Amino acid sequence: MKHKFTKITAFIFTLITVTYVQAQKIQDGKLWLNEDGSNYFKVTLISQVWVRNTDMNPGTTINGYPKSSYTDIGVRRARLQAYGQIADRVFIYSQIGMNNFNFLSDRKAGFFIHDITGEYEIVRKRLSLGAGLTAWNGLSRYAAPSVGSILGLDAPLFEQTTNDVTDQFLRKLSIYAKGKLGKLDYRLVMSSPMAVQKSSNYNAALTDYSTYSAMPAKMQWQGYFQWQFLDEEANTTPYATGTYLGTKRVFNVGAGFQYQPDAMWRKGVSLTDTITSPMRHFAVDAYYDAPLNTATGTAISAYAAYMNLQHGPGYIRNQSTMNPANGSTMPTVINGSGNGYPSFGSGSLLYAQVGYKFKNNLIGSTTVLPYASLQYAKYDRLAGKMNYWEAGASWLLKGHTSKLTFAYQNRPIFETLSPGAKAVQTERKSSVVLQYQVFLN
Predict the structure, then answer these.
(1) What structural domains and CATH numbers belong to the chain?
(2) How many CA within 13 A on the CB side of residue 197?
(3) φ, ψ for residue 57 (rounded to 5)?
(4) Do 160 and 143 touch, CB atoms closer than 8 A?
(5) % of the chain residues with pLDDT over 70
(6) pLDDT tens column, 73-114
(7) Does the pTM of the predicted model rise above 0.90?
(8) Residue 427, strand partner residues
């Protein structure tokens, strides 16, 4: 009897759902919830798969076996978004997915929640308040990048300064305010940092160099303000577009900050002495993306940022995207294993990227977008400058919906040659990556 009741209930629920959906209108990928489409719901899906060959950092091992180079396949990102203006002034946003799934990953890990946010519009377009696990961050444009529209292979991840240390892949437990005041687009955020003990490379040992404090964290404050000189960009979600492929004419100049009291700690003079210091970051950036010839479809995209990053004396952290290795026999190499390099640190950083979209229908119905980017940093812990560069091209089979991106990446290797000394660059390594993206938007 219970099984029969369950089947009847499921049938009624399905019938109601189908009837409701059929009563609505789907336009521009949105399910309209009212007659004019001002209330809507939308679902998107993205897949990014990498094939690459990596020149490994010195001393690299994979499960104990030494490797100087390696070829692998991995899922860089898989995401499902569901969001909408479900009632007047009421917005909901959610995203689930996974990142960096390769041959070393735990199997059957499954999707996890990236974002879940509720938002209420207090003053039309001018002020909305929201809360949840969210990517509404401060500091810079690509502190929250739109992964489906990235100019090159990947976003400048170092702009996500606490990525997976005190947040969840840049998402934070936050309360935020955002809106537009004429040409000014703004966001202000109060975040509750996640426990650093849960981060993947947590080490409880105190050293002479700053690391994130394991004490209960104080609130983190952040904001980002940009003046939109030309076309207005949407701020429906926190994610900033990489390139519009010539469909908009955008020129923005922005500035932002991040601040958290007593976020960092390090060893004092005695073993029982602990020194704490705040995390203080400031950035300015500029973004230009526009058509060059509307008749042929050629376009240009450019972005530049300056960041002053203060994590405390000697702080350094590697970026090793979807690392194809898990061990190292050379602790003097501060890059760690695989494809890691010192991307995050205390000091100053310059970043620039530029891309050029060729005319439409360059190759049949497709076209090509070559690009280049450079990360140039001067970090306290390094004896010289840190330069990481990338160049490549995207074959736009159908815009961002279907594209194939080839990239060549070149990174420096830094080594500490004597205890307590600054690390010096000893050589350079490279990787070649081919990515295929499918984006249902």
Answers:
(1) 1-28 (no CATH), 33-440 (2.40.160.10)
(2) 6
(3) -65, 150
(4) yes
(5) 94
(6) 999 999 999 999 999 999 999 999 999 999 999 999 889 999
(7) yes
(8) 413
pLDDT score for 26: 84
- Two tokens, residue 354: 């530029």
Q: Which residues fall within 8 angstroms of residue 417, CB to CB, at 6 or more apart?
A: 332, 424
CA pair distance 166, 246, nearest whole angstrom: 37
Residue 131 and residue 176 in contact, taking contact as beta carbons nearer than 8 Å: yes
Three-state SS for 301-362 is EEEEEEEEEECCCCCEEEECCCCCCCEECCCCECCCCCCCEEEEECEEEEEEEEEEECCCCC
Return the structure tokens found at 333: 């190499």
Side chain identity at residue 328, one-letter code? S
Q: What is the dihedral of CA 220, 226, 232, 235, to 10 degrees?
A: 0
Q: Residue 24: which of 13, 12, 36, 10 has the closest Cα?
A: 36
Beta strands in 145-241 (DSSP E): 172-181, 184-192, 211-212, 220-228
Q: Is 271 left (phi over 0), alpha (psi -120 to 50) or beta?
A: alpha
Measured CA to CA in angstroms, residue 301 lies from 157, 202, 363, 364, 371 at distances of 18, 38, 21, 23, 9
| Residue 409 CB burial class (10 angstroms; 0-12, 13-18, ≥19) | buried
Q: Which tokens belong to 425?
A: 């660059």
The DSSP output letter for 158 is G
The tokens of 124 are what? 């039309």
Residue range 159-173, pLDDT digits in tens: 999 999 999 999 999
Residues contacting residue 103 through CB under 8 Å, at least 6 positions apart: 72, 73, 74, 324
Q: What is the maximum alpha-carbon separation in the chain?
A: 77
